[in-house]
Amino acid sequence: MVEQPAPGQTAFERPLTGVRVVVTRARRQAAGLADALEQLGATAVVVPVIEIVDPPDGGAALRGHLAALGPGDWLVVTSPNGADKVAEALGSQPLDERVSVAVIGPGTRDRAQNLGIKVDLVPDRSIAEGLLESFPRPDQGGATVVLARASEARRLLPEGLRELGWAVHDVAAYRTVAVPVEEADVVACRESDVVAFTSSSTVTRLHAAVGLGNLPGIVACIGPATAAAACELGLNVDVVAEPHTIDGLVSAVVDCHGSTPLPGDKVESVKGC
Length: 273
Fold this sequence. Notes:
Blueprint: E1 20-23, H1 30-39, E2 43-46, E3 50-53, H2 60-68, E4 74-77, H3 80-90, E5 100-103, H4 106-114, H5 128-134, E6 144-150, H6 156-163, E7 167-178, H7 183-190, E8 194-197, H8 200-210, E9 218-221, H9 224-232, E10 239-242, H10 246-257, E11 266-269
């Protein structure tokens, strides 16, 4: 039986009524996306496939490199998780105000600013290539970039920054590790309508855990890097959120499976890889 909108709510207010959406974020981070989907009528099928953990050194390298930053240097943060770890590493000692900060994506910008980290550069394209296109060359020899990100991230960014003339410290701020998926989760994925991917690691982990044939028919991705990871594994990406945030991803799900898009949000239609 198709679920009906809650009393006092219209189909416009609950455009995802009856839609099952797989949420693959780490369990402690899944609630925001799951709650937003359920407020629009969806059933959020939470299948956490990753967990965010500290690097093997417990963050010692990140703390040391942050403390060594000075005038003319940059800090680059590529994800909200990275922003969390930077704030944790800084503790009560603020970043030198003469250090510039670049982030990838509006979600990372918002998280950094909420944690008291000023942001000087957000590229128009929320991927490593976009940051390299907008990143300046150093004004002085020996100028440093500390790149705080996942230990398993792509090599493109540190290599590109070095080509621009920077001394780059590629520091593991955290790791993503696989979480075992139960058989019931495999069945739940197969019986769902949409999967909403929030990172490349969630794409690769879910694909490895359940297989291509058990994924929902509609794929929504938070950004182009996540979509690229999905395409490489043979998934057909239906929509990429714009902006590349959780709110944008929710709007993308509405656009591809709901009755009408949410006001004020855009979705970039992909329709294939």
